[in-house]
Amino acid sequence: MSKMLILKPLSCVLTVALGTTTTPPVDAQTGSYRVACQTMVSLSQGASLTYRLAGSLPEITAAERLQNPVGTTLTLTVQWQDRNGRVQTLLNASALGDYEQLAPDADYSQLPFEETFRGQPNNADFLYGTPASVHGLYVSLRPTSGKPQQIQTVHYLNSGEYVRSTVGDCQTGNTDPDTTVDEQLKRLQERLQAEDWVAADRETRRLLAPESASLPPFEPVFVPPEMIRAIDQMWLTASNGRFGLSVQLRLWQQALTEHPNNREAAVNAFRDRVGWKLTAPRSEVDFISSDWLNESELTYSLQAPQGHLPWGGVSDEVVQSVAIPPPGVHCGSCTVDAMQLRNERFYSYIPQLMERVELSLDSPVSQTRNH
């Protein structure tokens, strides 16, 4: 695991200019594959920067790329989060360009990546940059042969001062994004049309957070903005506007307005608004559960509060599989692990999900943000 590197003490101001840059399309006759990567930087005073790369790359070798360069359709989203959990989007799906095309005469080995991610003086293979960054933001994917498996970023906060991210992971898949979205949403559409709210809720979590559902995940797991928008629209249509991600986003923003400096309080306020709080004691003592409703305790009907579905928790089966180890396996912390999975997950997952929903529902805006 790499560590953050800062040349100077961090300035209290991070300035990133947002821009709408058009990326050249990949040749229609060139096969491509989807790629999604994420990495982060830990800053002072509990703040952090998260970098999310998404898009597609052509199915060609490095030699073929040098002989016949083709454009990429990669974008980079950058989010800043403070110690209280407040999130600000600095770059929203900003276009990435091949660094060799952005700076054809540069010495690519001078970018301060770790050795494994550093380019050669005359070789910028799998090195990218975004023109939307004021002082420079660069991405390196590795390995350079085959499909990328890891990512690292170098982000100049001002002239001569940069942060280097940890080594993040990448997912790739040989699928057309539109076809993938259609195939993965087909079952959800069928469940919603039948008003099978239980099955539709599980299908939604299978798509958005597969580790929280008892259903087998799709491989690889991609959640492009168009999928989030489609999921939201399906729920809105099936429930006449009562359920859906955009309904939840509106309620989440209200909770944030009430508790701008306390993320935990905002999550609790959101929980109360969507009806995920336990209102009466359980008949049986359950050491794993808390005052959050479990999956089996949700109201799967149109009489539920606005935004009640889709749920943001973890399926009961998944929790039980953690709490109860297989026969012959001894686990001293299984109950604690199950409690953390069921209860504490809300406080990290809900803000992250709402930020993803907001990014997906809003189109990129060209502006400069200071904080």
UniProtKB/TrEMBL annotation:
Gene Ontology molecular function terms on file: tetrapyrrole binding
Keywords: Signal
UniProt signal peptide: 1-28
Keyword DNA-binding: no
Source superkingdom: Bacteria
InterPro entries: GUN4-like, GUN4-like_sf
GUN4-like domain residues: 182-311
PANTHER family: TETRAPYRROLE-BINDING PROTEIN, CHLOROPLASTIC (PTHR34800)
Protein name: GUN4 domain-containing protein
Native source organism of the sequence: Drouetiella hepatica Uher 2000/2452
